[in-house]
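Practice problem: predict the structure.
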Amino acid sequence: MDISSVDGDHVEGENIKRMNNRGFRITFSILLSSFFLLWIADPCLSDLKAGPPVFLDLDGPKSFRQNPPQDYGPWNRDLDWYESSDGLVFSKKGIFVERGGVPCLVKAPDGRLFAVFQWFPLNQRESFDQVAVMVSSDQGRNWTPPSLLRVSGLPSNLYRVFDPTLVALPEGGFRLYFSSERTSALNPRGNRAIFSAISNDGISFEFEPGQRFGFEGSETYDCAVGFVGTLWHLFCPVSASEGWGYHATSSDGLNFLQQPPVFIPGQRDWLGNVNSTEKGLYFYGSGRQGAWAGFSPDGFNWSLASGATNLGGDPAIVSAGERGYLAVATGPLRADAKPGPPVFSKKSVIRR
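Answer:
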């Protein structure tokens, strides 16, 4: 027997085994790397957990969620002005204010109308992305120029005031509900929740201690608040979950108790404003097919109402007496819209 041939066969066999093992390791490494790349690229895979699905907040604050994927900032849109005789079918009348978003309208007990919104004037950098207020004393025919709404006493761990919702209090005065980012060393931005401030004149506000609505492990933002019966009702959109909205109630407008979520069918979001009437609550919201209106006699059970047609995004509606109903909503991209960061200028941005 040729010993050398036996050793050669043995060596060759061992080489084949090593090559096969090496090939297996390479193939496994490629598969593992591919899965890892897919895992970090796909937030749904990277957040796999047992139990019910967790909706990821991929949309951002209300004023940014209305943007197309080309990354156009909210300063590329105007707030449009609408009128209606019945509060359901609206016609556009023009531009309310240029470069604005997140509107809310309310009537004070003395009949004055207040409009609050997020303002993005490119000729006033100090006012950019601030909450502004306008007031009308003649049922919306004429309005004061925008001025900044001020909130004093804001805690140091809260980053800015945005997504304003203004309500007129039965006892007089105003309460502002707003979103703010709860900051910390680990989370310098994000982590939004709902807070409030109180005012006598609807312009200068004092922060009210505590949090009105929010969660430790997830965000809430862009609320709408109305009153029916003996309760205040607060609604927030559930991010990335069409049709669903957070719901909470309070007897004093400060301490809210979470209720079962509200639902409206179709591709609709609880992104908008709520109006209180003697019959119940009307919610005017946004959706893929345009604005929608819903009605509830008690704030818990909702059904679609016909109308809310021809409105833009995130609509706000108010009764203006003999003039019928007025609305302000976020319009389409401006003709001069540009992607990327804002470019500040001296050009006037206010037109009514």
